[in-house]
Structure formats: C-alpha cells, structure tokens
Amino acid sequence: MSASPARLSSLPIERPVDRKTSDVPLYVQIADSLLDRIESGRLLAGDRLPPERELSEGLGVNRVTLRRALRVLESRGLLIRRQGSGTYVADPKIERQAGRLISFTRGMEQRGFAPGARVVLLEERPVGASLAAVLHLPMHAPVYDLLRLRLLNDVPAMLEHYVMSVRRFPDLARFDLEHRSMYEVMETEYGVSIRRAKQSLEPVVASEFEADLLDVSPGAPLMMERRLAYDREDQPVEHGRDLYRGDRFRFVTEIAPLEI
C-alpha cells in the first residue's frame, strides 16, 4: 500500500551537502539522503516518491542529476519505477545468514514465504577434472547437473545449481524436486545428512539466460554463492553455485571479536 500524499508531503526535503564544499558527487549525496530516509523508516515499503519535478525543485538540482541518483537506488533494489505510476520504495530485502547452513526451503518458510521450485535442467554427465578432485570422485564418474529456479510466493528469486554423484544418489529424477528441499531428499531418501559446508560469496551480473529465468534485466546485480557441502563422515556431497537476485536478498553475518 502506498503512503498518503499528506504523509509524503510532510517529509522534509533535505538539501544535499553544498557541492562547492564536498568532493562527493551531488547525485551520490542525493542517493545517500534518500537511502537514509528509507533505512530510518521515514520512507516505508510501498511509499511513492514525490514527482520528479517537485523533488528536483525541493533539492535544488536539475532532473538529470535527480534521475542519476534514483538510478543508483534502483540498481540496489531499493526503489521500483512503475511506468505511468511513479517511483516507489521497494519491499525490504530478505536476509540470508551467510554464516549458517540452512536449506533455502526451510529458511524461507520460517520467514513466512511459500517456497517453490521449477526444474530447468536435470541431466547426467561425466565429471570434469576440477570437480572430480573437489568431490573426491574418479575422473569421468557420472554426476548430475541439476538447475532449479527457486520461487517465493510464485515469484522467481534464485537459481540453484547442484553437481553431485549419480552413484551416491541413483534415480534422483523419481523424486518430486519441484516441491521438496534437496537436503531433505538426500537425508530422507538416501540417508545422507549434510553436516557442514564451505562457501563463498561474490557479486556478479545476470546473463541473458539467467535474467530471463529470474525475471530481471540482463546485467542486473546477483549474488553468487559457491558451496561445497560435507556429510557426517566429512566427505564432500555436493558442489553448489547459487545465484540470488540482488534486489531481493541481503547476506548478513556475525563478526567475531576484533583480533589485536
């Protein structure tokens, strides 16, 4: 639901730092000012920003500078532009705990979402040299390539890519991979429990193929999570490469005490 015009008009339009006394570009100052209002709760999810003309006049900048600032926040998934309607504050990003191993299905259910999946690819192939070494498999051993599009309330949210041994998980295709957690299938159907994982995060941009599946524009920001999961005997089980929509997710972790 969008905010009432009265509430929006009551928000003070703060002028940015004087461009003559700051080395920070004016559009960055404006973007930071709007970001502060979003993070402080003065602008809420669903609020519509004032029209560009009103906003640019209030800030004392031209509309080119203003649009550049708005694009910064759009690219971060904080604003949504709706054709013929205006620019709105986006819904808060979903937090994923980077330091905890939890299945996507379970984690999203705990947050009140209805998770789903669509199998894009499930095929067998011989494993290459690099993944054979990582997964402790013989060269050319058969592995599954599994690509699933993960949905939240039927909206594309993440691309999930698994590589794992066919011999350890025979006849995987007979299970309902569009409604079940992969880790739950491993444990229930094969007796394999995931104990720990090594993972890394890095920002990437969406290819045309990925953008089409995730319903974003080519070049849109994604967060790639690489993962190697181990069982209770500390043997590698699966290699993952997941792509999260940058406008839907934020990764958080707790930091250990400072080492001096």
Description of the structure:
The chain is an alpha+beta fold and 260 residues long. It folds into two domains: 5-89, Arc Repressor Mutant, subunit A (Orthogonal Bundle); 94-252, Chorismate lyase (3-Layer(aba) Sandwich). 27% of the residues lie in helices and 32% in strands. It has eight helices and ten strands. The protein has helices at 5-9, 26-40, 52-59, 63-75, 104-110, 129-135, 182-190, 208-214, and strands at residues 79-82, 86-89, 94-97, 115-126, 142-152, 155-165, 194-205, 221-231, 236-245, 249-252. A six-stranded antiparallel beta sheet has the order 4-5-6-9-8-7. A two-stranded antiparallel sheet has the order 1-2. The radius of gyration is 23 Å and the shape is elongated. The termini are far apart.
Write the layout of secondary structure elements.
Layout: H1 5-9, H2 26-40, H3 52-59, H4 63-75, E1 79-82, E2 86-89, E3 94-97, H5 104-110, E4 115-126, H6 129-135, E5 142-152, E6 155-165, H7 182-190, E7 194-205, H8 208-214, E8 221-231, E9 236-245, E10 249-252
Parallel strand pairs: 3-10
Antiparallel strand pairs: 1-2, 4-5, 5-6, 6-9, 7-8, 8-9
Helix pairs in contact: 2-4, 3-4
Task: List the defining traits of the structure above.
alpha+beta; six-stranded antiparallel β-sheet; 260 residues; two-stranded antiparallel sheet; Arc Repressor Mutant, subunit A; elongated; Chorismate lyase; 2 domains; disordered N terminus
